Automatic annotation (TrEMBL):
GO terms for biological process: cell division. PANTHER family: CELL DIVISION PROTEIN FTSA-RELATED, ETHANOLAMINE UTILIZATION PROTEIN EUTJ. It comes from the Bacteria. Residues 10-184 form the SHS2 domain. InterPro entries: ATPase_NBD, FtsA/MreB, PilM, SHS2_FtsA. This is SHS2 domain-containing protein. Coiled coil: none annotated. Pfam families: PilM_2. SMART domains: FtsA. It comes from Candidatus Wolfebacteria bacterium CG03_land_8_20_14_0_80_36_15.
Length: 351
């Protein structure tokens, strides 16, 4: 399910809740190169949420998604066929547990046996993958910490069908959290860092330590929640509300102060989820999180960085996946937005 392959050019495909983002990456040294990128946004969902591409309560449409992907490929003139695609948090199940240190073959047997007690579906209906993410000393001896990932086979078949219809070769699937960590965490970042990927209909919250994913969760409060708050509060349509959110954000002038008043309660919900993740991880690991990285389209909200800093008391920055790749100089004026918005797609492409 998560195989690495040797193609020279790779297309990272991030099928989100309201957009499809792609990044064409050429393998190289010392850095991979971003050759091209593109995004196709679904706008109808602003007025009718059931027309989102997918969500925790909305299944992915194979034919419509494939056609949208083909349209995006035509617009960008991308010809690379080999794809690594992301699986959203709400379509996967991720958990962590400790077992005694043992050989890889023995670990495989133990994980396969223990997985039954953690997973919401029978093993016959899911694909599982495990990753050793660390070791720790306990009163019972040295234990290894295991990340267990499972995805329903039904969901995997959907993705296989989408890319087949689109004329692409699906080489690997990977959960969003792993791609996000690869794109935004530097090799020198050994201390735990919280990443909040604020999409349209869900916010993915993860903790990464020593380049390993150590915590993974999500909330349905995200960018669309903020848009609806503005629309309902000001009595305007969702498209106008989306424009105000993007153009004013939390930095609205005094005459538009009501905008921030409408946004903050919903943004506070996302921050509370981030704080819960921080407290949970710090209590279980005994290590402190001192830094937060924001990503996704929602992280482009003007003023969000400073507000997160004030409410969490931590260092906060906007992620930039372009630090992991070489890219054309003409992208420089847009580097912050592109590197943040396309973080998952770039993380997939540099796998």
């Amino acid at each position: 399910m998560f195989n690495v392959f040797g193609s020279k050019n790779v297309l990272g495909v991030d099928i989100g809740t309201a957009s499809i983002k792609i990044a064409e990456i050429k393998k190289g040294s010392p850095k991979p190169k971003l050759l091209n990128y593109g995004m196709l946004e679904a706008s109808a969902h602003l007025e009718r949420p059931n027309e989102a591409i997918q969500a925790s309560s909305l299944k992915l449409s194979e034919r419509q998604t494939a056609e949208a992907l083909k349209e995006l490929l035509n617009q960008t003139k991308i010809t690379t066929k080999d794809v690594i695609a992301s699986i959203p948090s709400f379509s996967s199940f991720v958990t962590f547990f400790d077992i005694p240190v043992m050989s890889a073959p023995d670990t495989q047997k133990v994980v396969s046996f223990q997985a039954k007690q953690y997973l919401p579906l029978p093993l016959s209906e899911i694909e599982i993958e495990w990753i050793k993410v660390g070791e720790k000393d306990t009163e019972e001896g040295k234990k290894q910490q295991v990340l267990l990932i499972s995805v329903p086979k039904e969901q995997i078949i959907k993705y296989q069908n989408i890319f087949k219809i689109a004329g692409l070769n699906l080489k690997a699937l990977e959960i969003e959290g792993l791609a996000l960590a690869r794109a935004l965490i530097g090799s020198n970042d050994t201390e735990p860092i919280l990443l909040a990927d604020i999409g349209c209909y869900n916010t993915n919250i993860i903790v990464v330590e020593n380049s390993f994913l150590r915590y993974n969760n999500f909330t349905d409060y995200a960018g669309a929640s903020l848009t609806r708050a503005i629309a309902n509060g000001l009595g305007i349509d969702a498209r106008r509300a989306e424009e105000l959110k993007k153009n004013r954000g939390l930095l609205a002038a005094a005459a538009e102060a009501e905008l921030s008043t409408l946004l903050l309660p919903f943004l506070d919900v996302i921050i509370r989820e981030a704080k819960r993740a921080i407290n949970s991880y710090q209590n279980s690991s005994g290590t402190s999180i001192k830094k937060v990285i924001l990503a996704g389209g929602g992280a482009n909200l003007l003023g969000i960085e400073k507000y997160f800093e004030r409410e969490t008391g931590l260092e906060v920055e906007i992620g930039n996946a372009l630090t992991k790749v070489d890219y054309p100089l003409e992208l420089e004026p847009m580097a912050r937005e592109v590197g943040n918005t396309f973080a998952v797609a770039i993380g997939l492409g540099i796998k």
